[in-house]
Design a protein that fits this description.
- Keywords: Membrane, Transmembrane, Transmembrane helix.
- With 226 residues, this protein is of the alpha/beta class.
- The protein contains 12 helices and 7 strands.
C-alpha cells in the first residue's frame, strides 16, 4: 500500500495526464495479507492495530483525493481491498477471466475501501450485501452488469483493447483534472467519512481478542488446506 501510494504521489506532480493501474501476471490483487497482519498483531495488538488503520486510511484517502484520472485494467481475481477500491477509480476495464470478491465476514473482518458507501450506490443495496456480507464471487460479466467495471474484453486481446481505448492521452491536463473534480465534488466528503468509519471498526476488530482469534483460525485453516 505504501509503495502504491508513493507511486501515486510521484504521478500527482509529474507531467503525466493519467494513471494506468494494472499488474504483471494473472492476479490483480488479493487484498490484505492476513498472515502478515496476524504476525504484527500477536506482539502488540493495540499499537499494531493503530498502525494498520493509519496505513489503510491513508492509502484509501489518497485514491479519494487524487486529482488525475485513474484507469484500472483488471486481469484475474480482485479480492477484498483490491475490489473495494475500484469505485474510487475513474474507469475500470476487466478481461473475461477477472472475478471480484469481498468475503470480509469469512476473514473475520469488516468492509474497507469506502465500499459501504460505493457498493450500495453503484449496484444497489441487495447486491452490495451479497458482496460485503455474503461474500458473493462475482464474475467479470456480472461485475459489468452491476457497474463495478465499465467494459469486459477477451483475455487474448485485453492489453491491446485497453491501449486502444485510452483516448485521454490527447486531452488537455487542465481539462481532465477539472472534469474529474466536478464529478467527484459532491462525493469526496462522504467518502472520507466512510473511510474513517470503516477503519475505526477495523481497528476495534484487530484490537479485540475475539477478532484476533477469528483471524488466527482463518490463517490456520489456510495452512491446513495447503
Amino acid at each position: 500500500m505504501n509503495e502504491v501510494k508513493s507511486a501515486l504521489e510521484i504521478a500527482a506532480v509529474d507531467d503525466s495526464k493519467f494513471v494506468l493501474l494494472s499488474v504483471v501476471g494473472s492476479v490483480f490483487c488479493c487484498g490484505l495479507d492476513f498472515d502478515i497482519i496476524v504476525k504484527h498483531l500477536k506482539y502488540n495488538r493495540k499499537r499494531a492495530s493503530v498502525k494498520l488503520e493509519d496505513t489503510i486510511k491513508n492509502f484509501v484517502n489518497f485514491f479519494i483525493v487524487f486529482m488525475k484520472p485513474v484507469i484500472v485494467s483488471v486481469k484475474g481475481p480482485a479480492i477484498g481491498l483490491g475490489a473495494s477500491i475500484l469505485p474510487l477509480c475513474d474507469v475500470v476495464w476487466a478481461n473475461e477471466k477477472a472475478w471480484f470478491q469481498t468475503p470480509y465476514t469469512r476473514f473475520g473482518q469488516s468492509p474497507d475501501g469506502c465500499s459501504t458507501i460505493t457498493f450500495p450506490k453503484i449496484m444497489g443495496r441487495a447486491a452490495a450485501n451479497e458482496m460485503l456480507i455474503n461474500g458473493w464471487k462475482m464474475n467479470a460479466q456480472e461485475a459489468c452488469d452491476k457497474v463495478l467495471v465499465s467494459q469486459v474484453f477477451w483475455s487474448e486481446t485485453f492489453t491491446q483493447e485497453v491501449m486502444v481505448r485510452i483516448q485521454i492521452t490527447s486531452c488537455n491536463s487542465f481539462v481532465l483534472e477539472n472534469s474529474k473534480a466536478l464529478v467527484c465534488y459532491n462525493m469526496n466528503v462522504e467518502l472520507k467519512q466512510a473511510n474513517e468509519r470503516e477503519c475505526e471498526v477495523l481497528k476495534k476488530i484487530w484490537a479485540s481478542a475475539q477478532g484476533m482469534e477469528y483471524m488466527l483460525k482463518y490463517v490456520q485453516n489456510k495452512i491446513d488446506a495447503f
